Structure formats: structure tokens, C-alpha cells
Amino acid sequence: MHASRAGRSAGLDFSVKARVMEATDMRRALTRIGHEIVEHNKGTDDLVLVGIRTRGAPLADRLATTIASFEGADVPSGALDVTLYRDDVALRGPRNLEATTVPGDVDGRIVVLVDDVLYTGRTIRAAFDALLDLGRPRAIRLAVLVDRGHRELPIRADHVGKNLPTSADEAVKVHLEEIDGEDAVLIGEPTR
Amino acid sequence: MIKHLLSMDQLSAEQITEVLDTAEQLRSVTDRPIKKLPTLRGRTVCNLFYEASTRTRISFELAAKRLSADVINFSADSKSAVAKGESFKDTAWTLEAMGVDAIVVRHSSSGAPNQLAGWVQASVLNAGDGAHEHPTQALLDLFSIRQHFKDFEGLRVAIVGDVLHSRVARSNVKGLVTMGAEVTLVGPPTLIPAQATTWGATIAHDLDSVIGEVDICYLLRVQKERQSEQLFPSLREYAALWGLDSRRQALMPRDSLVMHPGPMNRGVEISADVSESPRSIILDQVANGLAVRMSLLYLMLGGTSEFGGEAVEHPNRNRPREKEVV
After folding, report:
1. What is the pLDDT of residues B68-110, one digit of tens each?
2. DSSP letter at B254?
3. Is residue B193 domain-shared with residue B268, that is, in the same domain?
4. Mind listing the pLDDT tens digit for each residue in B192-220?
5. Are B1 and A1 a contacting pair at CB < 8 A?
6. In chain A, where do the E strands start and end?
């Protein structure tokens, strides 16, 4: 039922032009981002990692595991479904909802939003609204695996895995082991 | 998703599952301090009720408000233009002219929502029409059942009481059969319609012979005004033969459930202690109605007509009605 509206990063037919990150690159990028988050925060106190569904969620979990491995502290991680907060619900039609599982209370915490690709910034804007309906974090930060430019809103990431200059006609797809069976970042052209 | 929800006939098992899955996610919004979502901002939903209702109307109103839609409540009573003789069609056109996006309609005549859907461009949701259907009740019942049973396949459900006049029974049989449940209709022969065998349900008249082998005992409200039609001898006899009291409940299998669409006649179709027993999920049904109606409004209104449903060229919009052409 949802085949035609599965979204630009997930379901569109796609012809691959280049693979720009492999599993090792991704692991190193996430390790660096993990270190940056802890350094920036001067420790792990009050940190919460919140991944934006779909592919931000496993990335947040991986960051939590990474941070635990070198810092020895458990940072809670969760997932946020922003579908109901998007500004394009009326244009793109309803999409399947997934669970929002934000651990504990976000009041007074430092929330690091995690997503796979930062593009127009509209998803992040929706995530702000979704998060603020759950409570009042002390600060919200943003970590993304790939920043591909073309912002439509004044939003920037605090931690970036890879800056990927693209043209607006290109599509960037992140594949994750947990969802797609492999770790890779692909550039391609959407085919319709 | 569909443009109008008029009957459970319209929904495939896959679509029912989509409605229930979406409701599952929306239910968690009810547990948080800020219970509102911005999703349907700028949309308008009209509750058009030609019949009395507490839970359905309030539940639809709250569902629309939780999704940030504007809500108009219209009851066809002494305060509305219906009292001045305005026809159903004129009321529909008035709402259409004001630009509502969805009309939730309850009417005493079977088929009224279907007629309305032909007149307006808005989505029409049937909130109960005569003895025909009450699809949102069936969907919230399916949702409530799914909270307790993993699979509908082979689930044994007895629907007990006045099936003849019950729109709840019709919608539930269709929904349950679509999902693969085994439905038995139980009641006095005068209250079971002859064509019920074509619905895919079994018919029984003796509740005691069925009660030991059901996963769910779904009791229908006895419409007390039916007694004057001599369809059953007395409320006491009805209660003795088809009412669920603690003696009969003791015959039900372990882990079986008791359901009722409300409002209940305690002491007739259900005894007070059964209605409040741990097996009764009657209050869950009410609570789940909110999530299921939010899910439907989101799936039906959460896109433009080209996405949400088939865009239909509206025959009446912007065209003067014939009588008015001079």
C-alpha cells in the first residue's frame, strides 16, 4: 500500500554511481563522533542519544556502544519517529509509524539527535518539535553520518561523519547492517 | 488508504492491520504530558450526529483535536437548522461550502453515510448508520482483541444478543471474518437475521452450549424498546437465557475475555460483577477507540486527495444547483 510513498532515502528505485563509505569507514567515523560527543560534553553526564527513525536509530545504538567501550559509561539511547511532525504530511501522504522510545525523562538532559543523512534540515526541524513535546532538554545537539548540503533551513550539525558535496539531482543512501544487511554509503541517481 | 470509511467490507486484512499498527503507535501519545500532535493542523473535521451518542462523538472529537484538526460538532437537535426543516442534503452542502475536510456521521437510517459520500468532496466516516454498520467500533474491538491475542486466525468469538438490530454486530462479524476468526452468533431466533449464514458466521441459540468453547464472549446491548415488539418475552427471561452472569462466566475457558460495546444494561445482557471482572476489557475498548480513530483520521486525511484516496471530480462544487438557475 505504501510502495509509492516509501520516501526518498529508503524505497525509491536507485541506480548506484559510487560507493563513498564502506563498513570500516563507517566504523571509524562513528568512533570519532563518539569521542567528539564525550569531549564536547566533558564526560557522559546527562547525555541521551536519540536516533531519528528509520536509520538514525541503529546509529544512535552504535554510538552508545562505542562510547561505552572507551568511556566505560552507559549512555542511554533511544529512537524518535518524526513522521507526525513533518511539514510535508499533506504533500507526501501518510506513512507507516514506528515506535518512539526515548529512555527516561529528557528534561534537563543533553540530547544528541542522530541521523544518517543531513540534507534539507526539515527532518531535524520536525525532530525538534517531536522532542520538545516530550520535555525540555537543556540542550539539543546533532550528529549525522553524512552531510550532503542543500539546506533549506538554518540548521547545522555539531558532529559530521563525512561531508559529501552532492548535486540536488543525486540521491544519497545509507545502508546499515541492522536494516539493509550491509554497511555502506551510496551515491546514485533516483530512477522513476 | 481509502477516501471514505462506510463499511468494514471496504477493508482488506492488510488494511485493517495497517490501521491497528498505526493506532498502536498513536496510543503511546496518550501516556505523555503533551498529548497533542501537529499532524492535521489546518484540517477541519465535522461531527454530524443525527442520533444520540456519548463515547463515539467524544472519542472522535478528542481524536481530531489530538491531531490538531479543528472540530465542529453538529447535533441535529432543536438548536440546529434541522429543526427548521433543513434536509440532510442541504446540511451536507452547507458543510461542503464551509470547506470541511472530513464528516463523521451518525444517522438512524442505514446507508445515510453512503449517500453523503456521493454529495460531498470531504472524506466521510461512518459513526453508525441505522442497523447497518459501525466500522470504527469494529476496528477498536479488533484492536482491543489484538492486545490480548497474537493472532486472529482461528480465534473463537461468540457475539451474543440482538444481532438483528445491531450495526456493531454486522461490522464486527465482517472485520473478524476478514481477519480469520471463527464467529458464532448467539441469540433468540427472533433476533438473528435469516441472512446471517451468508456472513461467514455460525448461528447458535443456546448460549450454554457455546460458552465453554469461546475465546471471546461479545455481548450486544439489549435495545429495551424492542421488548414492546415482542421479539423476546421479558428482560428477565432474556437475562436468564442469554445474559452473561458469574455462573456462565465460570464456564468460559481460561484466558477468555468479555467485551461489550456500551452502553451496558447491567443485569440484562451482562451482570454487574461480570462487567467489572478481570476478564472484562470493556473500559479498554473505550480507551482504545481514541487511538483507532486517530489512526483513521491520520491515514485518511494525512495527505492530499491524490495521495489519501482517489481524487474524484466533484459534481456539485462550484456549480449552481438546478433549482437556483434563473
Report:
1. 999 999 888 767 778 778 899 999 999 999 999 999 999 999 9
2. T
3. yes
4. 998 898 999 999 999 999 999 999 999 99
5. yes
6. 14-21, 47-52, 77-80, 110-118, 139-147, 159-163, 171-175, 184-190
Could you tell me if B89 and B16 lie in one domain?
yes
Summarize pLDDT for B14-70 with one digit per residue, the tens.
Answer: 999 999 999 999 998 888 889 999 999 999 999 999 998 889 999 999 999 999 999
Give strand pairing partners of A115. A144
Give the C-alpha separation, B190 to B169, whole Å.
Answer: 15
CA distance B294 to B235: 37
Instruction: Report whether pLDDT(B314) > 60.
Output: no
ipTM higher than the 0.85 cut: no
The confidence score (pLDDT) of residue B110 equals 96
Please give the DSSP secondary-structure letter assigned to residue A141: E
Q: Give me the domain span that covers residue B261.
A: 148-280
Element (H, E) at B258: strand B257-259
Cβ-defined contact of A85 to B38 (cutoff 8 Å): yes
* Residues 6+ away with beta carbon under 8 Å from B318: none
Same domain flag for B15 and B130: yes
Q: Is A92 within 8 Å of B307 when comparing Cβ atoms?
A: yes
- Which CATH number among 3.40.50.2020, 3.40.1160.10, 3.40.190.10, 3.40.47.10 corresponds to the domain A23-167? 3.40.50.2020
Domain count, chain B: 2
Q: How far is B6 from chain A (nearest CA, A)?
A: 20
